């Protein structure tokens, strides 16, 4: 079965979606939609997409895709998802889903009422270093998990022109570091360490050109007993040939071993009371983030074609947004915010 894919959006990150779909033998790009004529024509030509549209409903009616891939800023998500749901078309949607928790919940309800699959394009958990860390956890390499930490330092947020050349809407987001960026790490932390029981946050805005915060610390308590630290600062960099490859450095600590991720995608394993050594594993330095976009889209194809289990459904992803909201509440109050796991509202019965 070849899955016919139509894409909505031709902004900066869409290039990675287009490239991955073209490299997946089980997918066929059939159309692209955008309200930006120049980027629409350019994307269609570059990625050999046969049909172009300025209006999503017209595109969906004309090409009848099996899957619509929504790669737009969050304010457009609900309307685009609704257009797909009205036609019974499955959807994959970029994060941050819907722009806020209430809209994300409305999107999930809309998809469930229509009986379509909604997947969130949360690609960080598909980065090869995190998949390998998960494999090591499941193999028992760490024993009891104790701590996880991530130090985010992409170094791309200084000055009045920060983000304007790539994703200019970043400057206007009232919630930025956590909502746009750390949401990736919230998902990664849950993927590796399980459900979150509580958070405490201190957030700052360092670049006055932005509306939202661009630095801060978040502490995590996990229901299984581990603790976590997210230390984010988008202004300063770190040691890496390409700081956008990993966006920072991770430490995953257990009673039996510690795993360290550096900025070049290398993993270093230190068994308890033994020297640290580089841990070899296979990965492809292509596309974005170790080809995580291709890995995610392959995962979605496997579900649509063979019924394989699916990660990051819209409903499951609501938990990340509940945690995000708790982080902002904590930053406002200066107190710990306790969560119950799982933080997922009941499924719609309609």
Helix/strand order, N-terminal first? EHEHEHEHEHEHEHEEEHEEEEHHE
What proportion of the residues form beta strands (DSSP E)?
15-25%
CATH class category of the largest domain? Alpha Beta
The CATH H-level superfamily of the largest domain is Dihydrodipicolinate Reductase, domain 2
Report the major sheet.
Answer: 9 strands, mixed
Give the CATH architecture of the largest domain.
2-Layer Sandwich
Summarize it:
With 350 residues, this protein is of the alpha/beta class. The chain has helices at residues 14-23, 37-47, 56-63, 77-86, 101-114, 128-138, 177-193, 243-246, 292-306, 314-333, and strands spanning 3-8, 27-33, 52-53, 67-70, 90-94, 118-121, 145-152, 196-204, 215-222, 227-233, 248-254, 257-261, 267-271, 277-279, 337-338. The protein has two domains: 3-121 and 301-313, NAD(P)-binding Rossmann-like Domain (Rossmann fold, 3-Layer(aba) Sandwich); 125-281, Dihydrodipicolinate Reductase, domain 2 (2-Layer Sandwich).
């Amino acid at each position: 079965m070849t899955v016919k894919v139509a894409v909505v959006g031709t902004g900066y990150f869409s290039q990675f979606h287009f490239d991955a779909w073209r490299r997946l033998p089980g997918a066929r790009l059939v159309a692209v939609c955008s309200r930006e004529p120049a980027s629409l024509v350019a994307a269609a030509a570059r990625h050999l997409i046969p049909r172009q549209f300025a209006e999503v409903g017209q595109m969906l009616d004309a090409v009848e895709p099996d899957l619509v891939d929504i790669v737009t800023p969050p304010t457009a998500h609900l309307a685009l998802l609704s257009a797909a749901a009205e036609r019974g078309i499955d959807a994959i949607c970029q994060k941050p889903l819907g722009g806020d928790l209430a809209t994300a919940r409305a999107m999930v309800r809309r998809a469930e009422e229509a009986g379509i699959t909604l997947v969130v394009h949360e690609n960080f958990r598909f980065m090869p270093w995190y998949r390998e860390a998960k494999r090591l956890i499941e193999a028992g390499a760490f024993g009891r998990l104790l701590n996880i930490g991530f130090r985010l330092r992409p170094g791309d947020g200084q000055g009045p022109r920060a983000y304007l050349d790539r994703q200019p809407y970043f400057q206007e987001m009232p919630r930025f570091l956590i909502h746009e960026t750390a949401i990736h790490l919230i998902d990664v932390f849950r993927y590796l360490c399980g459900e979150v029981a509580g958070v405490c946050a201190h957030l700052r805005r360092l670049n006055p050109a932005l509306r939202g915060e661009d630095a801060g610390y978040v502490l995590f308590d996990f229901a299984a007993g581990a603790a976590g630290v997210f230390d984010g600062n988008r202004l300063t960099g770190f040691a890496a040939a390409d700081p956008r490859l990993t966006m920072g450095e991770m430490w995953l600590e257990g009673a039996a071993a510690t795993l360290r991720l550096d900025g070049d995608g290398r993993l270093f394993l230190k068994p308890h009371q033994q020297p640290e050594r580089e841990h070899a594993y296979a990965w492809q330095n292509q596309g974005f983030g170790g080809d995580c976009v291709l890995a995610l889209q392959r995962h979605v194809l496997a579900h649509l074609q063979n019924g394989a289990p699916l990660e990051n459904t819209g409903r499951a992803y609501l938990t990340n947004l509940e945690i995000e909201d708790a982080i902002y509440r904590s930053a406002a109050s200066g107190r710990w915010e306790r969560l119950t796991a799982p933080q997922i509202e009941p499924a719609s019965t309609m």
